[in-house]
Design brief:
Layout: H1 3-15, H2 24-38, E1 43-49, E2 55-59, H3 65-74, H4 79-86, E3 90-94, H5 103-111, E4 116-124, E5 127-136, H6 144-167, H7 173-200, H8 204-218, H9 222-232
Antiparallel strand pairs: 1-2, 1-5, 3-4, 4-5
Length: about 240
Protein backbone atom coordinates (compact mmCIF):
# COMPACT_ATOMS: atom_id res chain seq x y z
CA UNK A 1 0.00 0.00 0.00
CA UNK A 2 1.37 3.41 -0.96
CA UNK A 3 1.89 6.21 1.56
CA UNK A 4 -0.97 8.15 -0.03
CA UNK A 5 -3.28 5.15 0.32
CA UNK A 6 -2.31 4.80 3.99
CA UNK A 7 -3.07 8.47 4.63
CA UNK A 8 -6.46 8.18 2.94
CA UNK A 9 -7.28 5.02 4.90
CA UNK A 10 -6.31 6.74 8.15
CA UNK A 11 -8.76 9.58 7.54
CA UNK A 12 -11.51 7.04 6.84
CA UNK A 13 -10.70 5.22 10.10
CA UNK A 14 -10.72 8.47 12.08
CA UNK A 15 -14.15 9.33 10.67
CA UNK A 16 -15.65 5.95 11.59
CA UNK A 17 -16.95 6.86 15.05
CA UNK A 18 -20.70 7.11 14.46
CA UNK A 19 -21.35 3.54 15.54
CA UNK A 20 -23.02 2.15 18.63
CA UNK A 21 -19.97 0.09 19.65
CA UNK A 22 -17.42 2.90 19.26
CA UNK A 23 -14.34 2.04 21.33
CA UNK A 24 -12.25 5.09 22.24
CA UNK A 25 -9.25 2.99 23.29
CA UNK A 26 -9.10 1.10 19.99
CA UNK A 27 -9.69 4.37 18.11
CA UNK A 28 -6.77 6.19 19.72
CA UNK A 29 -4.55 3.09 19.58
CA UNK A 30 -5.07 2.95 15.82
CA UNK A 31 -4.12 6.62 15.53
CA UNK A 32 -0.74 5.94 17.16
CA UNK A 33 -0.15 2.87 14.98
CA UNK A 34 -0.81 4.85 11.82
CA UNK A 35 1.48 7.68 12.91
CA UNK A 36 4.37 5.29 13.56
CA UNK A 37 3.89 3.72 10.15
CA UNK A 38 3.28 6.77 7.98
CA UNK A 39 5.64 9.26 9.61
CA UNK A 40 8.38 6.75 10.43
CA UNK A 41 8.43 7.81 14.06
CA UNK A 42 9.82 5.45 16.66
CA UNK A 43 6.88 5.86 19.03
CA UNK A 44 3.63 7.80 19.32
CA UNK A 45 1.23 8.34 22.20
CA UNK A 46 -2.04 10.17 22.84
CA UNK A 47 -2.37 12.12 26.07
CA UNK A 48 -5.71 13.52 27.16
CA UNK A 49 -6.92 15.94 29.82
CA UNK A 50 -9.42 14.84 32.47
CA UNK A 51 -10.58 16.72 34.36
CA UNK A 52 -9.23 20.22 33.75
CA UNK A 53 -5.43 20.34 33.40
CA UNK A 54 -4.75 16.81 34.65
CA UNK A 55 -3.19 14.70 31.90
CA UNK A 56 -3.12 10.96 31.35
CA UNK A 57 -2.25 8.60 28.52
CA UNK A 58 -4.93 6.23 27.19
CA UNK A 59 -2.94 5.05 24.16
CA UNK A 60 -1.10 3.07 23.09
CA UNK A 61 -2.08 -0.03 25.01
CA UNK A 62 1.09 -1.76 23.89
CA UNK A 63 3.82 0.82 24.49
CA UNK A 64 7.39 -0.11 23.69
CA UNK A 65 9.75 -0.46 26.65
CA UNK A 66 11.32 2.90 25.74
CA UNK A 67 7.96 4.69 25.53
CA UNK A 68 6.86 3.21 28.85
CA UNK A 69 9.85 4.91 30.48
CA UNK A 70 8.82 8.42 29.40
CA UNK A 71 5.01 8.43 29.42
CA UNK A 72 4.59 9.47 33.05
CA UNK A 73 6.97 12.40 32.65
CA UNK A 74 5.34 13.36 29.33
CA UNK A 75 2.14 14.06 31.26
CA UNK A 76 3.89 16.62 33.48
CA UNK A 77 6.30 18.39 31.13
CA UNK A 78 7.57 18.35 27.58
CA UNK A 79 6.10 18.75 24.11
CA UNK A 80 2.83 16.88 24.71
CA UNK A 81 1.88 19.10 27.64
CA UNK A 82 3.00 22.25 25.82
CA UNK A 83 0.93 21.36 22.73
CA UNK A 84 -2.13 20.82 24.92
CA UNK A 85 -1.71 24.03 26.91
CA UNK A 86 -1.04 26.25 23.88
CA UNK A 87 -3.33 24.42 21.42
CA UNK A 88 -0.47 24.77 18.92
CA UNK A 89 1.98 22.28 17.41
CA UNK A 90 5.36 21.94 19.10
CA UNK A 91 7.85 21.70 16.24
CA UNK A 92 10.33 18.81 16.03
CA UNK A 93 13.17 19.50 18.42
CA UNK A 94 16.55 17.97 19.10
CA UNK A 95 16.39 16.67 22.67
CA UNK A 96 20.05 17.54 23.14
CA UNK A 97 18.95 21.19 22.90
CA UNK A 98 15.54 20.96 24.56
CA UNK A 99 14.10 23.79 26.70
CA UNK A 100 15.13 23.89 30.34
CA UNK A 101 11.48 23.45 31.32
CA UNK A 102 11.62 19.94 29.82
CA UNK A 103 14.60 18.92 31.95
CA UNK A 104 13.28 15.73 33.56
CA UNK A 105 11.41 14.65 30.43
CA UNK A 106 14.49 15.26 28.30
CA UNK A 107 16.80 13.30 30.60
CA UNK A 108 14.44 10.32 30.64
CA UNK A 109 13.70 10.48 26.91
CA UNK A 110 17.37 10.62 25.94
CA UNK A 111 18.15 7.77 28.34
CA UNK A 112 15.44 5.74 26.59
CA UNK A 113 17.15 6.35 23.25
CA UNK A 114 15.00 9.12 21.77
CA UNK A 115 16.68 11.97 19.92
CA UNK A 116 13.80 14.15 18.69
CA UNK A 117 10.36 14.98 20.07
CA UNK A 118 7.35 16.94 18.85
CA UNK A 119 3.61 17.09 19.49
CA UNK A 120 0.36 18.40 18.03
CA UNK A 121 -2.85 19.27 19.91
CA UNK A 122 -6.13 17.38 19.64
CA UNK A 123 -8.27 20.45 19.08
CA UNK A 124 -11.54 21.58 17.58
CA UNK A 125 -12.09 25.33 17.47
CA UNK A 126 -11.73 26.45 21.11
CA UNK A 127 -11.82 22.97 22.59
CA UNK A 128 -8.57 21.06 23.18
CA UNK A 129 -8.89 17.49 24.41
CA UNK A 130 -5.22 16.60 24.63
CA UNK A 131 -2.27 16.05 22.32
CA UNK A 132 -0.43 13.56 20.13
CA UNK A 133 3.23 12.98 21.03
CA UNK A 134 5.69 11.85 18.36
CA UNK A 135 9.17 10.56 19.24
CA UNK A 136 12.09 9.62 17.04
CA UNK A 137 15.30 7.72 17.79
CA UNK A 138 17.04 8.71 14.55
CA UNK A 139 19.51 11.32 13.36
CA UNK A 140 16.79 13.54 11.87
CA UNK A 141 13.55 15.12 13.13
CA UNK A 142 10.01 14.60 11.85
CA UNK A 143 9.75 16.67 8.64
CA UNK A 144 7.53 19.74 8.95
CA UNK A 145 5.22 18.43 6.21
CA UNK A 146 4.70 15.27 8.27
CA UNK A 147 4.04 17.37 11.36
CA UNK A 148 1.32 19.22 9.42
CA UNK A 149 -0.21 15.89 8.40
CA UNK A 150 -0.04 14.68 12.01
CA UNK A 151 -1.97 17.80 12.99
CA UNK A 152 -4.58 16.94 10.36
CA UNK A 153 -4.87 13.44 11.84
CA UNK A 154 -5.20 14.90 15.33
CA UNK A 155 -7.89 17.32 14.15
CA UNK A 156 -9.78 14.47 12.49
CA UNK A 157 -9.51 12.37 15.66
CA UNK A 158 -10.91 15.24 17.74
CA UNK A 159 -13.82 15.65 15.34
CA UNK A 160 -14.39 11.90 15.59
CA UNK A 161 -14.56 12.08 19.39
CA UNK A 162 -16.98 14.99 19.24
CA UNK A 163 -19.12 13.11 16.70
CA UNK A 164 -19.20 10.14 19.05
CA UNK A 165 -20.55 12.53 21.67
CA UNK A 166 -23.23 13.77 19.26
CA UNK A 167 -24.31 10.21 18.45
CA UNK A 168 -25.21 9.68 22.08
CA UNK A 169 -27.21 12.92 22.19
CA UNK A 170 -25.66 13.96 25.48
CA UNK A 171 -23.86 17.00 26.78
CA UNK A 172 -20.18 17.84 26.39
CA UNK A 173 -19.19 15.91 29.50
CA UNK A 174 -19.64 12.59 27.70
CA UNK A 175 -16.27 12.71 25.92
CA UNK A 176 -14.56 13.50 29.21
CA UNK A 177 -16.38 10.56 30.78
CA UNK A 178 -15.44 8.28 27.88
CA UNK A 179 -11.75 9.09 28.13
CA UNK A 180 -11.87 8.84 31.93
CA UNK A 181 -13.27 5.32 31.57
CA UNK A 182 -10.64 4.68 28.90
CA UNK A 183 -7.89 5.26 31.45
CA UNK A 184 -9.22 2.47 33.65
CA UNK A 185 -9.88 0.30 30.58
CA UNK A 186 -6.26 0.74 29.52
CA UNK A 187 -5.09 -0.67 32.85
CA UNK A 188 -7.42 -3.66 32.46
CA UNK A 189 -6.23 -4.22 28.88
CA UNK A 190 -2.60 -4.13 30.01
CA UNK A 191 -3.33 -6.81 32.60
CA UNK A 192 -5.20 -9.03 30.14
CA UNK A 193 -2.49 -8.59 27.52
CA UNK A 194 0.18 -9.77 29.95
CA UNK A 195 -1.94 -12.69 31.09
CA UNK A 196 -2.68 -13.84 27.53
CA UNK A 197 0.95 -13.46 26.47
CA UNK A 198 2.09 -15.63 29.37
CA UNK A 199 -0.58 -18.28 28.77
CA UNK A 200 0.14 -18.59 25.05
CA UNK A 201 3.87 -17.89 25.22
CA UNK A 202 3.59 -15.04 22.72
CA UNK A 203 4.73 -11.43 22.67
CA UNK A 204 2.75 -8.65 24.32
CA UNK A 205 2.13 -7.09 20.90
CA UNK A 206 0.73 -10.38 19.54
CA UNK A 207 -1.47 -10.76 22.61
CA UNK A 208 -2.87 -7.27 22.13
CA UNK A 209 -3.51 -7.91 18.43
CA UNK A 210 -5.42 -11.10 19.29
CA UNK A 211 -7.67 -9.23 21.73
CA UNK A 212 -8.25 -6.34 19.34
CA UNK A 213 -9.06 -8.67 16.42
CA UNK A 214 -11.50 -10.57 18.62
CA UNK A 215 -13.18 -7.33 19.74
CA UNK A 216 -13.59 -6.09 16.17
CA UNK A 217 -14.79 -9.43 14.85
CA UNK A 218 -17.50 -9.70 17.51
CA UNK A 219 -18.32 -5.97 17.73
CA UNK A 220 -17.56 -5.63 21.42
CA UNK A 221 -15.39 -3.23 23.38
CA UNK A 222 -11.74 -4.09 23.83
CA UNK A 223 -12.17 -3.68 27.57
CA UNK A 224 -14.95 -6.31 27.51
CA UNK A 225 -12.63 -8.78 25.79
CA UNK A 226 -9.90 -7.95 28.31
CA UNK A 227 -12.21 -8.62 31.27
CA UNK A 228 -13.40 -11.89 29.72
CA UNK A 229 -9.81 -12.93 29.06
CA UNK A 230 -8.96 -12.50 32.73
CA UNK A 231 -12.20 -14.07 34.01
CA UNK A 232 -12.22 -17.05 31.61
CA UNK A 233 -8.47 -17.63 31.46
CA UNK A 234 -8.29 -16.85 27.75
CA UNK A 235 -10.15 -15.24 24.88
CA UNK A 236 -13.95 -15.69 25.01
CA UNK A 237 -15.41 -18.59 23.05
CA UNK A 238 -16.01 -17.88 19.37
CA UNK A 239 -19.77 -17.80 19.78
CA UNK A 240 -19.75 -15.63 22.91
CA UNK A 241 -19.07 -12.06 23.88
Amino acid sequence: MSREDKIAQTFVELADTLVADFDVIDFLQQLTVRCCDIFAVTDAAVVLAYPGPQMYSPAPCDPSPALSQVLDLALREGPALDAYRTAEPVAPGDLSQAPAAWRDFTVQARAAGYTYACAVPLRLRRETLGSLLLLRATDSPVPLDDLAMAQAFADAATIGLVHARALRHTDTDVVDEQVHVALHSRILIEQAKGYLAACRDISLRDAFDLMRDHARRHHVLLSTVAQSTIDAGGLPAAGGR
